[in-house]
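Continuing from the previous page of notes. For each protein in this section, the sequence appears first, followed by its structure tokens. Read the first protein now.
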Amino acid sequence: MKNGWHKSTLGEVLAVLRNGVNCKQNKSGKGDKISRIESISDASFDFGRVGYAELSERDKERYRLQDGDILFSHINSAVHVGKTAAFNSDEPVYHGVNLLLMRPKDVVTSAYLNHAMKYLFQSGYWRGVCKQSVNQASVNQQDISIVQISYPKSLSEQQRIVGILDEAFEGIATVKANAEKNLQNARAIFESHLNSVFTKRGDGWVETTLGDVCNFVGGSQPPKSVFTKTHSPNNIRLIQIRDYKSDKHLVYIPRSLAKRFCNIDDVMIGRYGPPLFQILRGLEGAYNVALMKAVPDESKLSKDFLFYFLKHSTILQYIIYHSERAAGQIGLTKETLEPYPIALPSLADQQTTVDTIKELAAETQSLESIYQKKLAALDALKKSLLHQAFNGEL
């Protein structure tokens, strides 16, 4: 270890490590402010995400946060367990039961400890030690107290490291915000083009409705008891909405029980959200009740033209509006889609329109890839700086 550094455990450097107050919160906006689990962000404590409750004077004295306290998310989803935020305010706020309060002794500054906790989170440490159930994960106080931490004995050296990290992270945050904005702009340009094509239309386009040129076929739902992870000649893949994101939940069913089928180029609609009204394609198999297949009359409407038409924002707004008005309705129905107006050019012009959209889509995907790589590089740089800082290399 570097000279002037000390290795200890979190339990040894913390003056306080305890749960928050367990009370029933209300949504009235009245009473005492209680920090909630959603209040943890990557940067700081967010006052906009607190709840309210009536506390006793004893609880107020015990659970009031002090300037420099560290809030630790010890009950959350596995990917968020271990997030921390420093509390910097004189405003009376009290920490809730899903947050642990960390108050360091004089040997470690609050700012240094907060960065050290972020290092543990970024390294994936908490995901490795947390206890997971179906809906959440947790880390107990005993597991936290035995975690090793290295720190300079000199408080001024701790402050120097914190200053370097704060300055670097501020710059990273600025670059990251610009990259995220550029990513959003690239997507917005593509979406704007789609909307322009399908709302302004062209000369000679024929007005009709989706119901007149397209049939919507809902899926079927075999019992889960017949699901299997093993593929064989006698079964077929059952496609669900989530399968369009990954093969993580791949399942098969007996071919004899399959009733609705789709091919790779078929246009599929997610009937449930969030997000509502996903337009999907690219998989082959039987599809379940959460999906609906859009089958166009291909003498009038091509599958590609239909695919992009269903992705433009005006029809999405229409679907959202009608879904909100039909709160008791279970999923999107074809009765909602069929009356929606669509204007059709000739099949040749449909192909020309689709070719232009595909070119812009390819350019957009290329830009997205660039910005995603940049965001990943910034995250890697942040992890590298934290690693250097807490291994005495800064």
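Done with the first. The second protein uses the same format. Note its length before scrolling.
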Amino acid sequence: MNIVETDLPGVLIVEPSVFADERGFFLETFHQQRYAAAGIPGNQLAFVQDNHSCSRKGVLRGLHFQLENPQGKLVSAGTGAIFDVVADVNPDSSTYGRWVGVELTEHNHRQLWIPPGYAHGFCVLSDTAAFHYKCTAPYHPQSDAGVAWDDPLLAIDWPVDKPVLSEKDLALPRLSVVSRDRLP
């Protein structure tokens, strides 16, 4: 397993060891001791919810976070390809307004660790993609929040011109109008 640090504190790219032959491949998607040694939850912060979504090409989901019960997430693409984005929307952070984008595919087997407190979103690059994420806190609808995917302060270089968005994501505000108490 190889761990790649990103420009955002605690956000890590995980490149698992993949054992492949003519039959296919095998890899560990999580091993508590190895991942804890790399800075991803071990005994002190356990995964409590697993999610799986499937989306078609051009779908963009995000940028989401939870105000209460913030979720850490270990994400990957089970099938297809996605462009996954983590953005720092905490105005008290030294990296406020910065983002990291990583391509996660069924072929590169990469995972991305997103600590609690970051905004997260992704768009689908392939015809369809199955997206998996392990979460450190359950979904808490009352504290669900987010910011606009095309926020000019973030200036994320999404690899899609006209994304397919949900009504919820179309209504997300820009950072410039969000009060401090509505950000991580």
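What the second structure shows: The chain has a mean pLDDT of 94. The domain at 2-18+45-174 is CATH 2.60.120.10 (Jelly Rolls). We return to this in next week's lecture.
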